[in-house]
Design brief:
By secondary structure, this protein is an alpha+beta fold. It is about 35% helix and about 25% strand. It has 15 helices and 21 strands.
Length: about 450
């Protein structure tokens, strides 16, 4: 079902100090980080991926036109050079701050034919926003290139593709470097015709599930449709029919999803006073810390997340931690809570069993919406709920009341298989349900759309 092909990749010239020119994806780069990357090297990919706005910018001179001019200049000067078509194996070696120990995640970088969602070839798990898609489309029009890969998952339960890709990994990588986070990046170029055909055959029977990059994928679809309309015909082999993806196996032990915790603000006090009573029977409530959050120094976020992981019974039980000024409690969904979830989602339009089993979906439906009267619409509008991946920061926010923090909810990670199951069912997860770690690097490989 998926059409996976070699990519005539554009890369930095041999001998480039890659650590000085790469960045994370555009959507996780803060203004401070943007300035840092600009200062790091005059050839840093930030000038293409997330250029600066300048005084006096207009329709003819702006960060998109500057990206196009810089991209062309770098190709003419040999800063960037184009490879013959190939597949690329991309390995990231990293450690998790909390658990330590090195992990390894392998991705296959390739061109993948873009298909509309309804074709069922590439499937989403989250909704998109218009502003980032408009930004990425303007950049794609200007550069005619995919500057950073979309991360997508695939099933390989028997390890068939993993075995096929093991051979090239036995030789030394074409490049290897460590970035500013001390994560190691290694790349192998694969031009073996038999292996390329084996990869293509493997994916013809597979669906792909977008893990990270929904906005970029919908941008690729929009760009293709623009060209098709402008030219009246777009041959099937035209490069605009494809986008750059980093394909990772769901079974890869190095595939890490981190949780994103919720901090609640601005809920009326009378609602706060009543919501725990409303949750009685829907959740078992086990106190982890009582007597107030001043005792947190003796507990710490690590103890809370460990208790939360244990409460999930290996991922088979929905559980999250409620952090309030009077302490921390572990909430576990009961049978009555599951029945309430079924009723609530049934009334709203039958969500799949996979969606109803998501910890984050239960939190949003039964606790935030039903218990605290915080609707999904208000959350998407940026009201009442903010997010952090730092559990300690969520605890501290409630303890100090920073920026009006009233409550926090700490979550377990969403399993990769759950992402696949929700995507297959045609559902979309609540906002910020997943955070794949580490992010794919930008600047390793560019996909030309000409």
């Amino acid at each position: 079902m998926a059409d996976v092909r070699p990519v005539p990749g554009i890369r930095y010239a041999p001998g480039t100090d890659l650590a000085a020119v790469v960045t994370p994806p555009y959507d996780v780069i803060s203004p401070e980080a943007q300035a840092r990357y600009y200062a790091r090297s005059p050839e840093n990919i930030i000038r293409l991926e997330l250029g600066r706005d300048e005084p006096g910018d207009d329709e003819l001179a702006n960060r998109y036109t500057r990206a196009a001019a810089t991209f062309a200049a770098w190709r003419l000067q040999g800063v960037l050079q184009q490879d013959a078509p190939a597949l690329y194996l991309y390995e990231q070696r990293f450690s998790l701050p909390a658990s330590g120990g090195e992990r390894r995640r392998l991705s296959l970088l390739a061109r993948v034919r873009v298909e509309p969602w309804e074709a069922g070839v590439v499937l989403p798990h989250e909704r998109t926003l218009s502003k980032p898609k408009s930004d990425r489309l303007k950049l794609t029009r200007a550069t005619a290139a995919t500057l950073s890969p979309i991360m997508a998952l695939y099933d390989d339960p028997r390890g068939a593709l993993a075995k096929a890709l093991a051979k090239p990994l036995k030789r030394a990588p074409e490049l290897s470097f460590s970035d500013e986070s001390d994560e190691q990046h290694r790349l192998w170029v694969v031009r073996d015709a038999a292996l390329i055909e084996r990869v293509a055959t493997f994916f013809r029977d597979r669906q792909l599930y977008i893990a990270d990059g929904h906005h970029r994928y919908e941008t690729a679809l929009a760009y293709r449709e623009e060209l098709r309309e402008a030219r009246r015909e777009l041959p099937p082999e035209d490069a605009a029919n494809f986008t750059l993806m980093a394909l990772a196996a769901i079974e890869d032990p190095g595939l890490v999803v981190l949780p994103t915790h919720r901090i609640v603000r601005g809920v009326p006090q009378e609602r706060l006073a009543e919501f725990r009573r409303d949750l009685d029977g829907l959740f078992e409530s086990a106190p982890l810390l009582t007597g107030g959050l001043d005792e947190l120094d003796g507990l710490g976020a690590g103890a809370v997340t460990e208790a939360l992981a244990e409460a999930s019974a290996g991922g088979t039980r929905t559980a999250f931690a409620l952090v309030a000024p009077d302490g921390v409690r572990i909430l576990r969904q009961t049978d009555a809570g599951r029945a309430a979830m079924d009723r609530r989602t049934g009334e709203a339009g039958a969500a799949s069993e996979a969606w109803r089993a998501l910890d984050v979906a239960v939190l949003h439906e039964l606790v935030l919406a039903q218990g605290l009267s915080v609707s999904e619409q208000s959350i998407r509008a940026g009201e009442h709920v903010t997010y952090t991946r730092d559990a300690q920061a969520a605890l501290d926010a409630v303890r100090t009341g920073a920026d009006g923090a009233q409550l926090a909810f700490l979550l377990n990670p969403t399993p990769p298989a759950a992402i696949r199951d929700v995507a297959r069912a045609g559902d979309r997860m609540p906002q910020k349900s997943t955070y794949f770690y580490p992010k794919l690097i930008t600047g390793l490989l560019i996909n030309p759309l000409w």
